[in-house]
Design brief:
Length: 205
């Protein structure tokens, strides 16, 4: 029993170290030392609907939601579920224990548990769905490491855990939040780093 417990702790620590190393690699991939995001880059990131001075301010909210959408897309794909649906009106009501218990399929259970927020919904006061679509397109084209790192983290966890059930879905949602926090920080650091380039720095003095 004691040996089994020690082995479990060892495996868990190895997985945490692997996750940490992966996130460091993402940060390195997102921050090439000799490049900066141009005015055109920020406009493209926002779908070319506003000029760069407004796009810069919008980018921090937009990138966070775009990264979250990429992560959820990868999680759904690896769980074998349908792609992310179109945005819906945000519902603050959490599913009841009865609803969760009676979910007819694992995908239906996941749909009830999937993380949502007020910025990725039809009644969002921050963004349109097309804004996030543009953000995802830009990140996939210019920073494909973001999607790859989520896929790798989720794959490692799924391979380790085995059979898919409600408990594993709950666990993978926790993994999603852990990975999102780390990758989102690396992405935000990258954005701030590139904002300090000579051509845009005067706008922040």
């Amino acid at each position: 029993m004691a040996i089994s417990f020690i082995n479990n702790i060892f495996v868990e620590n190895v997985m945490l170290v692997a996750l940490f190393v992966n996130v460091i690699c993402v940060g390195a991939a997102l921050r090439p030392a000799d490049t900066c995001l141009s005015e055109t880059d920020y406009e493209e990131l926002c779908g070319n609907v506003v000029k760069y001075i407004y796009a810069i301010g919008l980018s921090h909210v937009l990138v966070h939601e775009s990264v979250a959408s990429i992560a959820l897309s990868e999680l759904r794909a690896l769980l074998g579920f349908s792609p992310l649906p179109a945005w819906q009106v945000y519902n603050r009501t959490k599913p009841s224990e009865t609803e969760l218990k009676n979910a007819p399929t694992l995908e239906a259970y996941y749909e009830l548990r999937e993380p949502r927020n007020e910025r990725r919904c039809l009644n969002s006061t921050h963004l349109f769905e097309k804004n996030v679509d543009a953000g995802i397109k830009y990140l996939d084209e210019h920073f494909p490491a973001i999607r790859r790192i989520f896929r790798q983290i989720f794959e490692e966890k799924l391979l380790r855990e085995g059979v898919l059930d409600k408990k594993l879905i709950d666990h993978m949602i926790n993994v999603y939040f852990e990975a999102l926090n780390r990758v989102d920080k690396a992405t935000s650091d990258m954005l701030w780093y590139k904002l300090k380039c000579d051509d845009l720095e005067p706008y922040f003095e």
